[in-house]
Amino acid sequence: MVEKKEYRIKVRGQLVPVTEEVYLTYYRMKRRELHLEEKDAKHGVFHYNALDTDETNGEDAISDLTSPRVEDVVTDKLIAEKLHQCLAQLAKEEQELIFTLFFLNKSEHQLTAETGILRMTIHNRKKRILARLKKLMEN
Q1: How is domain 70-138 classified at the CATH fold level?
Q2: Would you tell me which of 79, 100, 112, 135 could form a disulfide with 119, CB atoms 3.0–4.6 Å apart?
Q3: pTM (2 decimals)?
Q4: Domain ranges (residues) in the chain
Q5: How many CB atoms lie within 10 A of CB 80?
């Protein structure tokens, strides 16, 4: 006499009797899932849900790449403060030239047209002032 085989799958810790078709489908899906996980592991794919805990979601561990890092913000502020201190050490005429060129975004050509000073004179002054600022910033 041929015994009829019983098929069971584990659901929430309990074995539940199912048909052969359900059993085979279920284990095909499980095997496919395992295969994909093995393939991801082989190729170095990391899923953030691997970081899930009872308290947090793994995706919450992803840093916000659109926001600037705190270290960068602080560094930028310190550099800006240092630059303003160095600018204050320049002569009034030098400060005005740097302000006009870099803060008002005027070109050397525009400044030449407004002041009548040769463009090469303005350019050379700018280079000399920037070299001096660089030295001040390094100290």
Answers
A1: Arc Repressor Mutant, subunit A (1.10.10)
A2: 112
A3: 0.52
A4: 7-51, 70-138
A5: 10
